[in-house]
């Protein structure tokens, strides 16, 4: 009782509106509206307008291309500088070991990881629109680069000319192999950068939407498995070839297991110790995040300790532990990438360009939403394209946003890309001045850093449970992306995942939800009759809705669902009518035969008494036929032909975004078929673009007019009721 009173009080407080207006169909509505006059521009005028330049337009384009010109003059030094300095130092401290470590993933010497941590990061300060992301080396992109480098320059290719057991020849073999792989990585960076730059200039920033979140997470999880398996040989200190392409994970694991007996115990102990220290450091940073002014830089601490222990104990000579080796001091002279490699790596460059942009823009959007500013996806493409293409002339490989470093840059107080510029300056100091100090650093330490940084990606296995509960289709996308990328390789896996994601979109449009709508009493609101008890259908009117557009892929399912949901199948009704008419014709024929026979008997002189006795038996058909003949045309039609109790059918086009030529033909066919069985078909809530599309497809010709289209479902319902009343009168 109290609940009912509260509900009534709530209804009384609810705001109401009352509008009295005519019942609008599109013919009437268009007659009362006046379209704005628009003078169409010729192609020449459009080109002239786009090429026209003013000082304001030039300034706008310059600020768009170089965002730093917009925010740097307004930089609040007192508020932002200290935070940016602390953030830049913290990020730079992470940038150093990760640059060295991810170079191993890219199959190039560690110093090239430092180059990739300097040039692109510094360039992004000028061209990027995000204030918080940290550009540089990233595990997934480095792994993709390494896969291409190993495929183009396998160990066997270089080993052919170096069969000698001489140490000098052995070193020359490694130098020749690394030099060729560097050229592949550099050319790949140049090509991927050019692709990103072109996509940005052509305003193709939307391509990232085709890499949905489940796809990216499944792909990066598989990439994490690839990265982990590739680092096992460095952690164990064993010598195996590096594999790329399909089943490379299986081959890598098999190669490691086949040589597990040659494990270098010293390298394993150093690596495991570093893993434990890094995990402890990350746990402390996580638990005491609010109390610590800056995160503990465990990675650089581990690098310094590892370098000191290696140099002090001479691990390279005494225990044959592989170390970083020669780090040239100073910057290298710019060089042009090897253009002749482009045809062989073009597809890989496209994959790297799109994945790199997707990673960067997704992270940039997260920070932009958190801190209340906007980013330009197209400018981000241009910025990444410049970072990669220009950086390639200085021997850097492909880069993108690093998730872990971006989180550190933002959490330690970074406000602008001044922090990123400072982190790149720190890397520059190492390259120019103190890089040689890291030459004794064991490779197993770098492997430990890489493996521990994969912890966040491995947590993504929990997505399986999440998507199982929320969306089976998104779970399927995640699993396909993971399995395909794991076993087919990252390049083919990504293509397979994107293709599958597109197939799921087609599947969803081919299998939409269909429903019959009814009215909430005393309102113009219509809902699913199966979902709410209060919703009622109008007698003789069916309102059908499909939550998808109408086009070639789902036109047949739309028609079949319409017949099933409404319970009115024109083809079945017409077939039943024809059957009834044939049966009636047979009855008339049989009756006529009996009449003729009775007449012949009378003429033959059969007595009236006998004839009267026999006529009731034979006269059953005659009397039945007479009763049919005496019926009115409407009664006869009802007697002979099956008839539906539905007089109007309304198609709700609210969810329809587009209609193609097949969809328009399907609509025409539906209207024609239902008209033959006495059912009027109306279309409600058709949007302007869909109306224009139907007009262009010449839908409103012959029997179909705009009078069949209504502004809303309620307009269509009222019109159908008026039509039914006038017909019954």
Automatic annotation (TrEMBL):
Its main location: membrane. Keywords: Membrane, Transmembrane, Transmembrane helix. The chain crosses the membrane at residues 100-127, 133-150, 184-211, 249-280, 292-313, 341-361, 418-438, 475-507. It is found in: Membrane. One of its GO terms (cellular component) is membrane. The keyword Membrane applies. Pfam families: STAS, Sulfate_transp. Residues 531-720 form the STAS domain. One of its GO terms (molecular function) is secondary active sulfate transmembrane transporter activity. It is a multi-pass membrane protein. It comes from the Eukaryota. NCBIfam families: sulP. This is Prestin. It comes from Aptenodytes forsteri (Emperor penguin).
């Amino acid at each position: 009782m109290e609940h009912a009173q509260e509900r009534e009080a709530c209804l009384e407080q609810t705001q109401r509106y009352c509008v009295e207006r005519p019942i609008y169909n599109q013919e009437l509505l268009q007659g009362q509206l006046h379209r704005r006059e628009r003078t169409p521009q010729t192609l020449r005028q459009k080109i002239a307008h786009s090429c026209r330049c003013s000082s304001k337009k030039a300034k706008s384009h310059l600020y768009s291309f170089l965002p730093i010109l917009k925010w740097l003059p307004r930089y609040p030094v007192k508020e932002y500088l200290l935070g940016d300095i602390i953030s830049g130092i913290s990020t730079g401290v992470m940038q150093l070991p990760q640059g060295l470590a991810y170079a191993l993933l890219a199959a190039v010497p560690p110093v090239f990881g430092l180059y990739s941590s300097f040039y692109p990061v510094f360039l992004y300060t000028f061209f990027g629109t995000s204030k918080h992301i940290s550009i540089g080396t990233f595990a997934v992109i480095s792994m993709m680069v390494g896969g291409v480098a190993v495929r183009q320059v396998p160990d066997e290719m270089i080993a052919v000319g170096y069969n000698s057991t001489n140490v000098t020849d052995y070193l020359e073999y490694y130098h020749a192999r690394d030099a060729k792989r560097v050229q592949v990585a550099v050319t790949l960076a140049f090509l991927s950068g050019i692709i990103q730059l072109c996509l940005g200039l052509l305003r193709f920033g939307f391509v990232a939407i085709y890499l949905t979140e489940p796809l990216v997470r499944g792909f990066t999880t598989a990439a994490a498995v690839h990265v982990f398996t590739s680092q096992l040989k460095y952690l164990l200190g064993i010598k195996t070839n590096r594999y790329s392409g399909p089943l490379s994970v299986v081959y890598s694991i098999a190669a490691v297991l086949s040589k597990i007996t040659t494990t270098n115990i010293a390298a394993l102990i150093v690596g495991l110790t570093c893993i434990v220290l890094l995990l402890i450091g990350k746990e402390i940073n996580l638990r005491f995040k609010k109390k610590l002014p800056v995160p503990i830089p465990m990675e650089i601490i581990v690098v310094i300790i590892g370098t000191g222990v290696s140099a002090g104990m001479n691990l390279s000579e005494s225990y044959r532990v592989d170390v970083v080796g020669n780090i040239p001091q100073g910057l290298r002279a710019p060089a042009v990438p090897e253009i002749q490699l482009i045809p062989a790596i073009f597809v890989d460059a496209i994959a790297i360009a799109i994945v790199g942009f997707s990673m960067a823009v997704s992270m940039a959007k997260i920070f932009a939403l958190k801190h209340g500013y906007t980013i330009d996806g197209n400018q981000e493409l241009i910025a990444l394209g410049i970072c990669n293409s220009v950086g390639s002339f200085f021997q850097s490989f492909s880069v993108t946003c690093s998730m872990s470093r971006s989180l550190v840059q933002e959490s330690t107080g970074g406000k602008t890309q001044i922090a990123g510029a400072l982190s790149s300056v720190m890397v520059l100091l190492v390259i120019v001045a103190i890089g040689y100090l890291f030459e004794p650093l064991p490779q197993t330490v770098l492997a430990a850093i890489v493996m521990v940084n994969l912890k966040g990606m491995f947590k993504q296995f929990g997505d399986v449970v999440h998507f199982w509960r929320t969306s089976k289709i998104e779970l399927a996308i995640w699993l396909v992306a993971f399995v395909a990328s794991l076993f087919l390789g990252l390049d083919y896996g990504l293509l397979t995942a994107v293709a599958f994601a597109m197939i799921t979109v087609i599947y969803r449009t081919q299998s939409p939800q269909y429903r019959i709508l009814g009215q909430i009493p005393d309102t113009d609101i219509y809902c699913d009759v199966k979902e709410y008890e209060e919703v009622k259908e109008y007698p003789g009117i069916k309102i059908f809705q499909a939550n998808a557009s109408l086009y070639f892929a789902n036109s047949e399912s739309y028609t079949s669902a319409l017949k099933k949901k409404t319970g009115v199948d024109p083809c079945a009704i017409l077939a039943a009518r024809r059957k009834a008419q044939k049966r009636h014709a047979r009855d008339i024929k049989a009756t006529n035969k009996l009449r003729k026979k009775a007449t012949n008997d009378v003429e033959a002189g059969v007595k009236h008494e006998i004839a009267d006795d026999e006529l009731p038996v034979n006269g059953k058909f005659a009397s039945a036929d007479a009763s049919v003949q005496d019926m009115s045309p409407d009664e006869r039609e009802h007697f002979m032909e099956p008839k539906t109790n539905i007089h109007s059918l309304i198609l709700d086009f609210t969810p329809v975004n587009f209609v193609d030529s097949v969809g328009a033909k399907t609509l025409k066919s539906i209207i024609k078929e239902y008209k033959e069985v006495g059912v009027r078909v109306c279309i409600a809530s058709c949007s302007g673009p869909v109306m224009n599309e139907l007009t262009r497809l010449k839908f409103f010709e012959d029997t179909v007019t705009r009078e069949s289209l209504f502004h809303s479902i309620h307009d269509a319902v009222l019109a159908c009721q008026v039509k039914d009343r006038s017909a019954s009168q």
